[in-house]
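user: Kindly work through both lines:
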Amino acid sequence: MHVDGTTVLLTGATGGIGHAIARAFARRGADLVLTGRKTTELEALAAETGARAITADLAEPDGVRRLVEEVGAVDVLVANAALPASGALLEFTPEQVGRALAVNLEAPIALTHALLPSMLAAGRGHVVHVGSLAGKVASAYSSLYNATKFGLRGFALGLRDELHGTGVGVSIVQPGFVRDAGMFADTGAKPPAGMRTVSPEQVAAGVLTAIEQDEAELNVAPPELRALSVLGSAFPAFSSAMQRVMSNDEVMRKMSGANQGKR
């Protein structure tokens, strides 16, 4: 489907990647509804893109329900909101574990469940879940984040098959290391040796491509990282050994320290 003239709900709009996605949809003529927790930043982005802004915290028990009631029916859902959730599991409090699961996994599923009926009734629509290559390959100091992104990938791909022939598509878009903006860039960490990054604009372009070409799974990463993600998914022991050689544990430790305040 083409996005011009469609009503699009974008969660996590105030994150760096969210900004790029919002601007990309606005340029294509979409009728945008943006949501996030930072009201001032959200309203500024809405003014820039001609969008409607709805402040919502998807970790709150009633956050999804209130958002759905206010936004109404949409043609496209882009579930982009996520918490970093990196670090050794025992560094998290039970409340922080619950918040990561709520924002990264439960909220995208709940939003999809709530917004899907109107898409099915119209016989058209698309749901995009913004995941991560961490949903294909596990890493030390990322077990909780891996769990949410592995779960999101499974949900998206399973639901896509379930909706085959209905006119409603489902895609999972999985970035690798993103520079300039987003949870990886915000930490100041550098990718493992030999690994290149992608820009927020490339991720936004991937989201648009997933919708317009009805892609099941689109990995936004350089060729070498896409290849390693395929190998790592098929051979987890090989992946673990390679990550140790490439000092990936050090990268994840640095990210964990920088992200502690965002749990």
About this structure: The chain has a mean pLDDT of 91. The CA atoms of residues 69 and 95 lie 26 Å apart.
